[in-house]
Amino acid sequence: MASNKKYWKSEAELNPNDSIVEALRQNEFTEQIPVDEFLGDKENLSATTTNRRDFLKYVGFSTAAAAVAACEGPVHKSIPYVFQPDRIVPGVANYYATTIADGFDFASILVKTREGRPIKIENNTDAKVNGGANARVQASVLSLYDSTRVQGPMANGEPIEWKILDATVRAKLGSLANSNQQIVLLTQTHASPSTDRLIAEFKEAYPNTSHVVYDAISEDAALNAFNTMYGERALPDYDFEKAELIVSFGADFLGDWQGGGYDSSYAKGRVPKNGKMSKHIQLESNMSLTGANADHRYPMTPTQQKIALAKLYGKLNGSNVGGGTSDVDEAVDQMAAHIRKAGSKAVVVTGLNDINAQTVVLAINKLLSSEAMNAEQPRYVRQGDVAKVNKLVSDMNAGRVGALIMDGVNPAYSLPNAADFVSGLEKVDVSVSFAYNNDETAQAAKYVAAASHYLESWGDAQIKKGHFSLAQPTIRELFDTRQFQSSLLTWMGNDKSYYDYIKETWDTSILQGSSWNQALQDGVFVTSETPVADVEVTDATASSEDESSAEQSSIAPIAAAVRSLVNSTSGGTELVLYSKVGMGDGRQATNPWLQEFPDPISRVSWDNYITVSKADAEQWGFENENVANGGLDGSYAKLTVDGTVLENVPVIIQPGQAKNTIGLSFGYGRRAGMKAEMATGVNAFSLYKNFSESQNVTVEKASGMHEFACVQLHKTMMGRGDIIKETTLEIFNTKDKHEWNYMPQVTLNHQEIPVTSPDADLWQEFDRSIGHHFNMSIDLNACTGCGACVIACHAENNVPVVGKKEIRLSRDMHWLRIDRYYSSEETFAQDEQTKDESADGYRATMLELENPSENPQVAFQPVMCQHCNHAPCETVCPVAATAHSRQGQNHMAYNRCVGTRYCANNCPYKVRRFNWFLYNNNDEFDFNMNNDLGKMVINPDVNVRSRGVMEKCSLCIQMTQKTILDAKREGRVIKDGEFQTACSSACSSGAIVFGDINDEESKVAELKKDDRMYHLLEHVGTKPNVFYHVKVRNTDEA
Amino acid sequence: MKKVLNRHLFTNVLGLSLLLFSTSFYAQEEAAATEVVAEEASASGDGDPVKGKQLFNQNCAACHALNRKMTGPALANVETRLAEDEGLDREWLYTWIKNSAGMIASGDSYANKIYAEYNQAAMTAFPTLSNQDIDDILAYTAAPPPAPAAATATAESEGGSGEGSGGISNEIILGALVLVFGLLVIMLFLVNNTLRSIARANGVVLEKAKAEKRVPIWKAFAQNQFLVLVAAIFLLLGSAYFAYGWMMQVGVDQGYAPVQPIHYSHKIHAGNNKIECKYCHSSARVSKHSGIPSLNVCMNCHKSIYEYTGNPEGPSAEDLANGYTNEFYTGEIKKLYKAVGWDEENQRYTGETQPVEWVRIHNLPDFAYFNHSQHVSVAGIECQTCHGPVEEMEIMYQYAPLTMGWCINCHRETNIKVEGNEYYEAIHAELSKKYGVEELTAAMMGGLECGKCHY
């Protein structure tokens, strides 16, 4: 939003004729610094008491004194508990099951606490639904220790006491009872049975109350479509593991589509088993994480997607859907053929926030009787109602709202008509915002009720019908905060604690006699399901009975929907808004881990930007260029949507972006109540008109270049297929391993021998057969590139945040990175072919291969220290700071390192990270390690590295050592699965498996023997302890 | 305190003899008291106070003292008190002791009064005690407790010895010595002068000229370049050696014994009372930290141990010399009560706590990972191996240097305790085959690898 406000520094500036202002503008230092005056005056100089020699003496003395003083060790105080809680043993971690339900992310998780401080989020493997923590959930533990949190209730910006706030609000609510003004609760999606009951009771206490649920990123169309078809405002649940064919019309289901959490079931179906794996076709505008994982990806504008969807329905239904453009016909034909083949094993999903599209998709799945879609047990993770939100804004402006209580929402930032909302808010007598940061809404509201973090709160959630989860506090409130539900209870005059309230709800209506303590310990509870067979039987009979009538009644609206879809037209360039894996809807924008988290696709951190296709970029004159210091620069664009202008939006040229579309992510551009470092990007919500993610936009080039902090400038592998080995399902099934997983050869005595042969080895092999020998397996088929492991590694290993400037200088500290490569030709296989055939003109070919294709294949590869058995870094360290262990881990003794960086230069995988600066207790890096609160997240078992030392992945040696010690203490053998690293335990898709290969029974030993196993850059002969599994694509081409 | 200490240094013998006297006096007194008790008991004729004392200590002392309110009321002359104030007889006491809860439930007025007065904590029922046992205990409670009188006597005698032991101090002796040396110097000077004057008188020429001709030794030394070079090298090597030695001491705080906010004596707890280390430092079994015990652990015992009575013979001369009197220790216990917020009068916690800021003695740098449970539980190493004779330490100090060389040496020399630990079975078999030894050291298991301690 452009502002017309004029800011002035002094009154003089208001007078245009003031000479001082002009003088200052020309010359900041109007008075000369009197150096000459002082030095020129010999008399004065000789009269000074401190001469040069004295000065040197003082310097010498103070240096010596400082040096001597440094010899004395500091006195450390140790303060034990006065009364030690019997559950806490200093030095031993406790785990609690809880649930995050912040309105955007819903997941059942475990929280690791040390000495009462939550320090890490783990997956809750007991949970059958959403048991995996994504990158944002992993990072949410740091948001607990956010120094910009609201630390107590406020009234008009001044701190007040809860008592006073309670009294004021209760008085007002009471006085509204007999007025014609209403009380409105504007909340996030809670999906909480107890909160629902509480709000219902609140409505009884204050009958003129209405409840408006608001999702910043709306799934309104999907909810309404499901409601029309199935009679419940919810979202269908999908099990992609059951699908043999997945067709997605712009649904980023590996991202945040319909609440997310689908990656683990998707990944299970993607690993070739018995020669079979699922096939995934994606039609989309932006290159999304999901599209990057697809076997076939068709870049299409939203309009084209709609037409294609309509035509696909026509094909499957046998009806003729005419009209629309014909350029989608080929794709539609192919998809229809595949879907017919897969039958009920196919599933179609869409991310188009358009009720017609959603209706048609549901109809197709119903038509196919898709096994992957579950409409019986829908999800409740999005409940926002656009119509009600819009009505609320108009009601507020019309003065019909007397009190507005907001929880978990920031409409003053995330509403497209935020200005209307703010002006309406001024007309509301009592506006209370349960705010976490002093955000836009909190600043506009009269009262700010400081909200507790979810790790400080009680709660419950019903993520999916019948799947309940409980949230328990893992730490007492750090500040004078209170959760929304407790406040509602107080304002209703109910003395009960919210804990008792939840327990009551569960005891009466959920647990059905099961143990509350057990449910609390597990964190999840599934209501005893009626036997599945029964449900299906009743279902079948019901549907067969109703079939004819139901079909009759539903055909008419579907036909209308199809007609409207096929007739959709676009008015030029389409803007497609999306959410990033790192930032989501922006509620954690103050979290430095997430700000520094590189986007899986663009690999840009600390920014949002528009993504444009190369062709469009040329047309509009946009450029991306790498400047001398290695940084990426991009042009600025000016976007205009329906009169709203967004200035200075940086541009990234994105391979795979559909022509005539641009993408822009939500979640950035927050400014209020946050540190300057975190206030990054532009606010895409201002263009989110009518809560539609696709908008007609006018794009213009603006002047200037934006400096990006992009961690990967290399886009393609340039035909070097040995980095990410991949093949197609057909070759994988029919050809010999040698064909698709080729072992590099070297020549010895004029004979070709495999590079892994001991004869080809310069070094002697150590015996690692005794004890443990750790290996890590990374399945490139299961890895979706989601990045949860990156944040988990951050949290476990105290990886510092270095800031945008340093990232731009390639000084990122991520121990684990996920490389993303595009193919230069249409597929990676063709890249290799092009390279091999470029006998003459090699240089030109290679230059050509640097450029990614218009619609490339994409591959992700997590790379951390490969823990080579013949490590190149170890041999060049002059001080033996890095050494190998018998257990296969490459050790790094930080206190021994002198920072020559030879090791980093000699590492073929470029996984070593150098501490250019001291990142803790340093105002230059004002992130979490620079304040006492943010430091509470530090893992006490891992060293915080200092300046001038090299650091890298340790294969989480603190975790393996702990596992070994636990077994020793208990005098038992270690079972498979006990050894974990932060990344392997964070990986909900099962791509990263860690274990001991000396244990023959272990999963990792089995995976190492698999035909798909290969080592990264095997021909270098480093013999890594990390290995990968060849990526298999289920494409049609042989 | 320091003055007392000095004075006592020279009067050890005197003090010791006085102490011996006082202890014998104490013993006599106690004997006398016991006699009195016995007499009284035989007079009432229904309980043996000696047996009663034993029973009391076994069953009652955790919650009751004779002259002091604790978890339960003070019990001195309890029977008389009850009979006089409440009109309750011994039968009431029998019932109460055997089943107090039942009595409260039955609505007995005094039982309920007591129950309410003592925070509604019902007294443990002792159905195993016979009436005779209770008689014995009551006989013991009825006897005037002799200990305080004896203690006063001891204190008095201590005071006496303290007063008497003043007198000659170090300074006087030193002064005398200085005086003697001074006299000697003066005498030498005088003798020398006299001899010279005698020589001059006798016409002896002092050999001054001769001395001038000879090349002084330092000049000869300076002229010999080889010698200078060798000497310089030795000098440099020597100073380098000492400089290195001194530098290596930087940051090694062996012997560091800071003054703690509460004078906690490991000698009394681990030495005299033989309390197992891990009773208080319980987390050493399971955690990387041995843990400084939280104050509620202290209160497990110190709820009833409210004063220091020390050895039955009274404080040793050494203790006295350091000022560690019984009163001193009792004062330290009061510091604990203040920190934990214990109201001695009413035997309850006030909730006003002041966490104790102990000064940390063993400071391993952050880059070294050390796990107590690995060494204590798995390896079964005695605490004293690294922490020294803690049971003899009045003031805790750092015994081991805690340097990496010290760690490594131990890892090289110490065998792993593999017996009965299933974890080691396979590894031990393979490793001992590989190294051809039966006993494996920590180093053979990989205990010297950098990453085992540095991550």
UniProtKB/TrEMBL annotation, chain A:
Superkingdom of origin: Bacteria
4Fe-4S ferredoxin-type domain span: 774-804, 888-917
Listed InterPro entries: 4Fe4S_Fe-S-bd (IPR017896), TAT_var_transloc_signal_dom (IPR030948)
PROSITE patterns found in the cross-reference section: 4FE4S_FER_2
NCBIfam families according to UniProt: MoCo_extend_TAT (TIGR04519)
Descriptive protein name: 4Fe-4S dicluster domain-containing protein
Organism in which the protein naturally occurs: Flagellimonas allohymeniacidonis
Lineage, top ranks: Bacteria, Pseudomonadati, Bacteroidota, Flavobacteriia, Flavobacteriales
Automatic annotation (TrEMBL), chain B:
GO MF: electron transfer activity; heme binding; metal ion binding
Record lineage: Bacteria, Pseudomonadati, Bacteroidota, Flavobacteriia, Flavobacteriales
Protein's recorded name: C-type cytochrome
Residues annotated as transmembrane: 172-191, 226-247
Signal peptide: 1-27
Gene3D superfamilies linked to this entry: Cytochrome c-like domain, Cytochrome C3
Domain Cytochrome c: 47-145
UniProt keyword terms in alphabetical order: Electron transport, Heme, Iron, Membrane, Metal-binding, Signal, Transmembrane, Transmembrane helix, Transport
PANTHER family to which the protein is assigned, alphabetical: CYTOCHROME C7-LIKE DOMAIN-CONTAINING PROTEIN (PTHR39425:SF1), LIPOPROTEIN CYTOCHROME C (PTHR39425)
InterPro entries linked: Cyt_c-like_dom, Cyt_c-like_dom_sf, Cyt_c_III_dom, Multihaem_cyt_sf
Source domain of life: Bacteria
